[in-house]
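Module 6 notes. Inverse folding takes a fixed backbone as the condition and produces residue identities as the prediction. Think of it as a translation problem where the source language is geometry and the target language is the twenty amino acids. Below is one complete input and output pair. Work through it position by position during the lab.
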C-alpha cells in the first residue's frame, strides 16, 4: 500500500456557517469539534438503496446523522458504551498526497472517550473490504489516524442477536420518561443474581408494566448487566459490572483482492465442480469432510489452515494460521455454527450447488401411477442386490429369497435372471443398479422432467434471443404510453434482423407469440394494468424484500398525508374543498395514534398536531362503545387494573360515565416520514430533537417504505369513505358526475367520523399483518397487539406535564418592544413581558440575533405564548384587537383580509381588514348573535392543541366570558336537538383490514455504483 507522502490537513464546518480549511492535522485538539456540524449533508436520489436519517443520541442529547442503517448500528453501540462522551458524524475532511495524487476522505464518525484516545470510525460492509478501491481509501486513512496517536476502526455487520438486544434496549434511553423514585427503589434492592423475570415481579406495589420498563432502563444504563449475545428472555441473569458486547470493529484491514481472484465474496469451495461418478455404496460417505491438521477453512473472509487440534472443557478447539502468519485459537463448534467459518473441501462430493434437482422435487412431479412404477422397479433392484424386495432380510416377503436371487448366486446370473423376468436387457439392469446406488428411487425415473436452466419458465422452447428482445422492447415503454401486443410483435422481427441478421432467429407464429407475451406479462407487466401501476412494479427491488421488524409499541411511528377521496365543506365559507388527511400510526401494533383533516394542503403545524395527539390522544366520543374507548393513560384495561389507585377519584366524568380517549398514548422513539416539506421542516425537526425522537426519512418515491400506513389509506377508502356523500373515487375514471354537490360534512365533522371509525372498527378488527410468531395462525387486532407489546416490553408513560402542548407550537423570533411584540403586523401584549421590554435576549444563533422566542398557534392567532427565563413558566399574550372580535382568526385568513381591505381602504387596520373578510364570506357583523356563536364554535374546534391555562389567561376566567362559553354549549345542544337528523352509526364495512401485503421498509441492497455499495445496509 502506498504510504502517505504529503502534509495532512483537516477541514471543519461549524454551526454558524463558518468553514475552516487546511488546518494542520497533527496540531489539532479535540476541543475544536464541539461546535462543528457534519461535513457532508444527506444525498437523496430516486432508486437509492440505503436509508439515511437522524438518530437521537442520549450521549449527545441531540440528533446525530447517519447515511445507512449499518452506520445506525455503530451509533447504537456508541450510545450504549458508558465510556463514550461524544459522537460526531462526518466530522472532518482529511486531505493529503498519497502516491503522487491528492486524496480526500471524510470519516463516518469521530468518537470521544473518557478513558481512551479519540476513535475514528469508517463503516463498510464486510464483503467490500477487499475491493481494491475501498481497501486503498481505508488503508491510507488508517495510516493518517494512527500517526496522529488516535485509534482507528472499520465497522462491519455486528452479531444479529446482540444488535437486536441493543435495538430493543435503546427504546429506554430517554431518562425523563421514567419515575425516579421507582428507579431508586430498584437500585437499592438486591437483584444481582436474580433472573430478569424475577426482577419484573419483585415489586408488587407497582404495576408490572411500569417495573418492566424501569428494569430495562437500568439494563440500558448498565446498572444491571446480562448476556446480550443471545436474545433477551426472562431467564437472563442480572449481574453487576460492565456490559460486554462483541460488536464488529476491525482494527486491521484484510488484503485487497483484484478482480478475478478469490476473497470474501468467493471461496475456493465455490470453484469446485462436482462430477457425477458412479460409486458403490451411494454418495452419503462423500458428504462429510474430515477436519484435522492441514484442513483449510474460510474464516471471516480469509483462508486459514488448521495447525493443531486439542480438546477443552468447551469442546474441540483448533489453532489456525492465516496467510500473513498470524495464529488464532478458535472453538471449532462455535465457529462453524455461527456461520463465520466454513470448510474448504479438497475433493469432489455432493453439494447443494449441483445443477440436478433434489430427489423430493423429482419424485413430487410424478403421478401416482408413475410413482408406483418407480417403487416397483426399486423393489426389483433390491431383490437383485440383496435377495429381498424390501432390501432388508428382517422384512422378507413370502417365499423370499427366491432361488435365482439367493446370496450364493453370482451377481451376473442374478442380473440375467432379472432381465429375463422383466423382459429387458442385462445392460439395462446394470444401468438401473448404478442409478439406484447413486440416487436410490430418484435415479430410476425414466425420462426425468426437464426443468431446463430455470430461465425460460412457461415459455417452453422459445428462442432466448426472441424473449430477450421482447423484454427489451417492453422495458422501453416503461415511461411511455402503453403499447399493444401487436406492436411489440411487429417490432421484434426487424430488431432481431438488425442485431443478428435476417433469418438468423426463427420467428414464432402469431398465436405462439401472443402466448409467449402472456407469459412475459407476468414477468414485466406492460399490457393489462395502468402505466402508473406498471412503473410502480418495475421500481420494485429485484430480490427479496427486507423488513424492519419493530420490537415494541412506539419504536417506529409512521406518518404520512394523503388527499381524501371525498369532498368536505369549509365551516366558514360553506363551500366544498379538497381535504387532506394526516395520520400517525404505530408500526408495531398498527394503532392509529393521530388524525388531522386539513383543507387543501398540510402544513408543518398540522404534522406537529398529529404528533401531539400521539402523546395526548383526543377525547373519546360521547356514545362510543366501551370496546373503542381507551383509559386516558393509554393502557388497555386488561393490562392496567389499578387506575383508581393511581388517579384517586379521577375515573368518572360529571355525567357518571367513565372518561376515556380515542386511542393509546405513546412515547414514539423514531418517526418514519417522507420528504414532504411539512415533515422535514425545521419546526418538526426541532420538536423531534426537543422530545428525543429519531427521524428516519423514507426513500424518494418509495411508498413501500411506509407500507402499513399506505395500506391503511386504502382500507379507509374501501371501508368508510366510499359510503359517505361526496365520495369522488380514487381517480378521474371512478368519479361521479358532480360529486362536489353531494359534499355534506364539514371538515371537523369528517375528522370526527374518521376518528370514530378508526376507534370502533379499525382498532378492534383483526389484521392479517399482525401476528405472534410463537402462536402461528392467531389473528390479532391493533388493540390486542398493543396489549401484547405492553406485556412484552412494558410501558413508557407519557409525561403528564400540562405544558407539553407548547412544545409543538411554531416558534418565531421577535424583539420585545414597550408595547409588546409584533407578529405579522399584529401586536400582542401581556404581563408576562414585564421585565423584558426593550431588552436584548441572551439567545444566540443565526435566527435569534438577540430576539426572543414567541410560540404561535397558526389556527388561532388571538393568542401567542411566551416562556419567561426567570420562572420558566408560560404566559399568554393577547392580540390587541382580540377582545373586539371574539373570533379565532387563522394566520392565512388575516393575510387574505388585509389584501381585500387594501383594495377599498388606503390605510386599513386589522379591525377593518377582518370586517371586510367576514363580509366577503357572507358572515358579516350584521349577523345575529346565534349565527355568530355557531361560527365561533365551529372555528374554535379547529385548534387541536390542548394548552393549559397560563398566568396571562385571566380573560378566559371572567364571568362574562364564562357565560358566553356556557351559552355556546347550550346553543350547541339546541342545534343538535332541532336538527332532526339521526346520529350516524359507524360503518361496518366488509373490506378485510390488513397492513402487510404492501412492500415495507428496508428493501434489499443491490449492487450499484461504488457509493451505493459503500453505504449498503446491514
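Target side of the pair, the amino acids:
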Amino acid at each position: 500500500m502506498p504510504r502517505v507522502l504529503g502534509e495532512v490537513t483537516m477541514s471543519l464546518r461549524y454551526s454558524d456557517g463558518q468553514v475552516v480549511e487546511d488546518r494542520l492535522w497533527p496540531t489539532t485538539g479535540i476541543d475544536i469539534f464541539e461546535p462543528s456540524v457534519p461535513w457532508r449533508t444527506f444525498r437523496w436520489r430516486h432508486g437509492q438503496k440505503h436509508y439515511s436519517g437522524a438518530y437521537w443520541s442520549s450521549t449527545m442529547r441531540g440528533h446525530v446523522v447517519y447515511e445507512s442503517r449499518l452506520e445506525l448500528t455503530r451509533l447504537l453501540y456508541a450510545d450504549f458504551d458508558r465510556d463514550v462522551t461524544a459522537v460526531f458524524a462526518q466530522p472532518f475532511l482529511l486531505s493529503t498526497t498519497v502516491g503522487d495524487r491528492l486524496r480526500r476522505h471524510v470519516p463516518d464518525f469521530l468518537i470521544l472517550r473518557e478513558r481512551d484516545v479519540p476513535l475514528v470510525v469508517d463503516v463498510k460492509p464486510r464483503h467490500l473490504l477487499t475491493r481494491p478501491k475501498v481497501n486503498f481509501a481505508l488503508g491510507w486513512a488508517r495510516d493518517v489516524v494512527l500517526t496522529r496517536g488516535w485509534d482507528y476502526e472499520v465497522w462491519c455487520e455486528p452479531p444479529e442477536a446482540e444488535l437486536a438486544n441493543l435495538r430493543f434496549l435503546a427504546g429506554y434511553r430517554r431518562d425523563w420518561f421514567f419515575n425516579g423514585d421507582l428507579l431508586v427503589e430498584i437500585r437499592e434492592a438486591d437483584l444481582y443474581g436474580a433472573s430478569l423475570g424475577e426482577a419484573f415481579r419483585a415489586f408488587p406495589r407497582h404495576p408490572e408494566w411500569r417495573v418492566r420498563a424501569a428494569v430495562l432502563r437500568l439494563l440500558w444504563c448498565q446498572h444491571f448487566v446480562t448476556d446480550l449475545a443471545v436474545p433477551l428472555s426472562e431467564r437472563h441473569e442480572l449481574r453487576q459490572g460492565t456490559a460486554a458486547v462483541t460488536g464488529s470493529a476491525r482494527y486491521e484491514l484484510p488484503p485487497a483482492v483484484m478482480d478475478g481472484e478469490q476473497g470474501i465474496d468467493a471461496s475456493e469451495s465455490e470453484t469446485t465442480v462436482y462430477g457425477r461418478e458412479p460409486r458403490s455404496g451411494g454418495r452419503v460417505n462423500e458428504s462429510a469432510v474430515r477436519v484435522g491438521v492441514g484442513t483449510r477453512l474460510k474464516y471471516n473472509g480469509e483462508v486459514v489452515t488448521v495447525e493443531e487440534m486439542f480438546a477443552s472443557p468447551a469442546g474441540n478447539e483448533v489453532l489456525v494460521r492465516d496467510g500473513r502468519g498470524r495464529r488464532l485459537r478458535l472453538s471449532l463448534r462455535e465457529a462453524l455454527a455461527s456461520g463465520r467459518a466454513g470448510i474448504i473441501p479438497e475433493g469432489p462430493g455432493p453439494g447443494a450447488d449441483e445443477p440436478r434437482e433434489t430427489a423430493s422435487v423429482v419424485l413430487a412431479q410424478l403421478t401416482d401411477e408413475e410413482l408406483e412404477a418407480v417403487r416397483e422397479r426399486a423393489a426389483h433392484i433390491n431383490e437383485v442386490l440383496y435377495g429381498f424386495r424390501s432390501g432388508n432380510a428382517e422384512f422378507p416377503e413370502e417365499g423370499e429369497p427366491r432361488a435365482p436371487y439367493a446370496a450364493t448366486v453370482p451377481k451376473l446370473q442374478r442380473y440375467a435372471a432379472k432381465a429375463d423376468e422383466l423382459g429387458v436387457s442385462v445392460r439395462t439392469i446394470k444401468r438401473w443398479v448404478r442409478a439406484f446406488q447413486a440416487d436410490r428411487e430418484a435415479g430410476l425415473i425414466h425420462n426425468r422432467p426437464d426443468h431446463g436452466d430455470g430461465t425460460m419458465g412457461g415459455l417452453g422452447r422459445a428462442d432466448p434471443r426472441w424473449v430477450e428482445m421482447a423484454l427489451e422492447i417492453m422495458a422501453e415503454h416503461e415511461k411511455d404510453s402503453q403499447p399493444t401486443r401487436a406492436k411489440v410483435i411487429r417490432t421484434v422481427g426487424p430488431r432481431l434482423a438488425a442485431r443478428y441478421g435476417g433469418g438468423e432467429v426463427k420467428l414464432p407464429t402469431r398465436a405462439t407469440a401472443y402466448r409467449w407475451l402472456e407469459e412475459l406479462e407476468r414477468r414485466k407487466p406492460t399490457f393489462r394494468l395502468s402505466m402508473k401501476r406498471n412503473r410502480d412494479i418495475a421500481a420494485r427491488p429485484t430480490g427479496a424484500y427486507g423488513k424492519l421488524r419493530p420490537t415494541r409499541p412506539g419504536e417506529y411511528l409512521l406518518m404520512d398525508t394523503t388527499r381524501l377521496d371525498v369532498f368536505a365543506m369549509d365551516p366558514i365559507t360553506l363551500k366544498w374543498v379538497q381535504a387532506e388527511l394526516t395520520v400517525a400510526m404505530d408500526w408495531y401494533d398498527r394503532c392509529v395514534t393521530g388524525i388531522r383533516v386539513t383543507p387543501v394542503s398540510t402544513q408543518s403545524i398540522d404534522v406537529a398536531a398529529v404528533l401531539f395527539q400521539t402523546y395526548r390522544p383526543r377525547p373519546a366520543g360521547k356514545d362510543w362503545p366501551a370496546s373503542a374507548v381507551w383509559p386516558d393513560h393509554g393502557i388497555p384495561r386488561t393490562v392496567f387494573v389499578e387506575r383508581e389507585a393511581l388517579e384517586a377519584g379521577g375515573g368518572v366524568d360529571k355525567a357518571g360515565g367513565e372518561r376515556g380517549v380515542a386511542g393509546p398514548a405513546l412515547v414514539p422513539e423514531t418517526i418514519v416520514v417522507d420528504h414532504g416539506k411539512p415533515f422535514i421542516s425545521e419546526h418538526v425537526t426541532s420538536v423531534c430533537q426537543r422530545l428525543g425522537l429519531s427521524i428516519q426519512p423514507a426513500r424518494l418515491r418509495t411508498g413501500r417504505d411506509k407500507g402499513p400506513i399506505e395500506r391503511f389509506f386504502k382500507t379507509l377508502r374501501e371501508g368508510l369513505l366510499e359510503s359517505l356523500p361526496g365520495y369522488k373515487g380514487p381517480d378521474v375514471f371512478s368519479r361521479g358526475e358532480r360529486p362536489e354537490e353531494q359534499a355534506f360534512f364539514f371538515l371537523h365533522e369528517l375528522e370526527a367520523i374518521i376518528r370514530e371509525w378508526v376507534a370502533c372498527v379499525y382498532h378492534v378488527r383483526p389484521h392479517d399483518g399482525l401476528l405472534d410468531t410463537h402462536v402461528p395462525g392467531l389473528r390479532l387486532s391493533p388493540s390486542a397487539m398493543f396489549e401484547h407489546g405492553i406485556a412484552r416490553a412494558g410501558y413508557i408513560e407519557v409525561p403528564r406535564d400540562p405544558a407539553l402542548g407548547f412544545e409543538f407550537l411554531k416558534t418565531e423570533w421577535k424583539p420585545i418592544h414597550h408595547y409588546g411584540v409584533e407578529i405579522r403586523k399584529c401586536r400582542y401584549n401581556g404581563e408576562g413581558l414585564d421585565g423584558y421590554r426593550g431588552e436584548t435576549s441572551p439567545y444566540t444563533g443565526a435566527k435569534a440575533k438577540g430576539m426572543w422566542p414567541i410560540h404561535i398557534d397558526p389556527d388561532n392567532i388571538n393568542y401567542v405564548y411566551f416562556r419567561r427565563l426567570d420562572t420558566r413558566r408560560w404566559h399568554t399574550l393577547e392580540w390587541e384587537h382580540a377582545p373586539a372580535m371574539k373570533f379565532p382568526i387563522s394566520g392565512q385568513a388575516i393575510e387574505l383580509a388585509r389584501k381585500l381591505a387594501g383594495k377599498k381602504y388606503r390605510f386599513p387596520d386589522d379591525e377593518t381588514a377582518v370586517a371586510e373578510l367576514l363580509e366577503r364570506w357572507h358572515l358579516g357583523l350584521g349577523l345575529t348573535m346565534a349565527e355568530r356563536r355557531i361560527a365561533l364554535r365551529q372555528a374554535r374546534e379547529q385548534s387541536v392543541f390542548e394548552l393549559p391555562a397560563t398566568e396571562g389567561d385571566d380573560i378566559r376566567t371572567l364571568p362574562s366570558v364564562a357565560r358566553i362559553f356556557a351559552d355556546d354549549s347550550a346553543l350547541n345542544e339546541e342545534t343538535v336537538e332541532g336538527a332532526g337528523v339521526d346520529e350516524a352509526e359507524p360503518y361496518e364495512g366488509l373490506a378485510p383490514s390488513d397492513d402487510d401485503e404492501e412492500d415495507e421498509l428496508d428493501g434489499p441492497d443491490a449492487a450499484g455504483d461504488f457509493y451505493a455499495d459503500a453505504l449498503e445496509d446491514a
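Reference fact for the lab report: Confidence is low (pLDDT under 50) at residues 262-285, 640-657, 920-942, 952-1018.
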